[in-house]
# Entry
Amino acid sequence: MSVHWLTGPDEPCIADYRDIAEHELVRSRGLFVAEGRLVVRRLIEDRRYVLRSVLVSEAAYRALEPALAAAGAQAPIYVCKAPDFLGITGHDIHRGCLALVERPPALSVRDLLTTVQTPVTMGTRPSTTAAAPRSTIVVLEGVTNPDNVGGVFRNAAAFAASGVLLDPACCDPLYRKSIRTSMAAVLRVPFARVDAWPDDLGILRELGFTIAALTPRAPSMTIDAFAASRPARVALLVGTEGEGLTRDAESAADCRVRIPIAEDIDSLNLAVAVGIALHQLSTT
# Structure
């Protein structure tokens, strides 16, 4: 391992960390930012991701040192004093752990749907060797809140969804807050952008998916009724909180499903709703 003990926040070797708040700038460099010991440890152990460098406090370094050593980490590791994070990044990084990571090649919708054949669970990698008897994909439209995007990925991992598709307006899943909220599930669950929205939803139907729009609007069937006779391949289509799905997206669905809730409550948090729906689809 190449470990560098920093003497202060102004050393030029850590210049890339000064721009971590500018997500699009980091993205333009072909990188993303991982934050927190749990997330960075999973990146180290996964081996599919290439770490450009790691910036840690001494306490975080000691905690991650066994994983870094076991993985034979080649990226430089910069160790700073915990208060120096504010001077380096402009933010007080309470977890004392950041990493710059190379973005993986983007998957196309067709690539994701045709190569991911078995469900993904937390701690496992996707397999391309055998067709799964059932498969569920989550499709998001207009979800710009990184906490909701991260929550959806965490639910997708927990309930063995095969992947997540996002329309062009959705938040980048590799935004550091999305990764953190997902508890690193974003790094495990495959995802792709649907560039021609909503026209490319037709690819789902072409590959045997039934598109089910999750909506409180009538007419619709309850999620448990749909799950009781669910098709082998389901694409759960979900819109943003408040406005929900656009008419164009909803009209592309094969059916509407709803989660019954108390009459005096108008809606659920998006990530909560997706979690309930995926639970029903995975256990019925």
